[in-house]
């Protein structure tokens, strides 16, 4: 797969829509073209959302659709990847993940957490409340706070609807007609592949395609706040990313290629550390001191 296909579509402007959709309708009447155009625009407007950091997003799937996709993907992974059954490892990861997900509130059902036997230092979270941690991650996330930094970051991707956003972009990029179908509530049909890739199931990358730099930065900021609220030391996120950078070429796709430059990531984390420390101290004062080992 070409990297360009993984990058977010920029500027979903009127011109972009004209290029994407209208060649398909060259035989259609002007009136029909206008109807389609304004229909797409109307649905685009209703599909616009704002991320937790205030960024505008294009979200074409509803929550139920994207959650179902996440659950299906996780079930597939559980059938194909060896699951680590070591009780100690599982208790440890459940402890860290549970402390973070307990801060999310709402009526969400408990998040399912699985540890996979895989040497790559990777982790992921999927819509529908699923978290996967590879055993290889423990080489770089060396204490509970650092593991919390990774899990917080991954849940940040979910909370900010990045799977939905990426899927929506894939649908827009890969097929004007399919996108129009999707807008009108028809089944996704031919754009199914685009949806699967957007969800992060590109076969070329195993589990997850890289997120964009913008999405990575957003997940960093959300993750930092989440770990701090849960009572984990947010300063350990800096050490985590240092460990990740030092691990060199073995970095998994989730943290590779489109991730923010190391210096940028550190600067952004440090810029948000003051607020995170306040949240951390408040959490500690309220007795949230996760004891995970
Ligand atoms: Zn990420």
Itemize the secondary structure elements and their pairings.
Layout: H1 14-21, H2 30-47, E1 48-50, E2 56-58, H3 63-80, H4 87-101, E3 112-116, E4 123-126, E5 130-134, H5 144-159, H6 162-174, H7 176-183, H8 192-199, H9 213-229, H10 236-246, H11 262-271, H12 273-285
Parallel strand pairs: 3-5
Antiparallel strand pairs: 1-2, 4-5
Helix pairs in contact: 4-5, 5-9, 5-10, 6-8, 9-12, 10-11
The structure holds zinc ion.
The site of zinc ion has 6 residues, from helix 5 and helix 9.
Could you characterize what this model shows?
This protein has about 290 residues and is mainly alpha-helical. It folds into two domains: about 5-60 and about 165-205, no CATH class; about 65-160 and about 210-285, no CATH class. About 55% of the residues lie in helices and about 5% in strands. It has twelve helices and five strands. The protein has helices spanning about 15-20, 30-45, 65-80, 85-100, 145-160, 160-175, 175-185, 190-200, 215-230, 235-245, 260-270, 275-285, and strands spanning about 50, 55-60, 110-115, 125, 130-135. It has a three-stranded mixed beta sheet with strand order 3-5-4. A two-stranded antiparallel sheet has the order 1-2. A hairpin with a 3-residue loop joins strand 4 and strand 5. Helix 6 runs antiparallel to helix 8. The termini are far apart. Mean pLDDT is about 75; it is low at about 1-30, about 185-190 and about 200-210. Bound molecules: zinc ion.
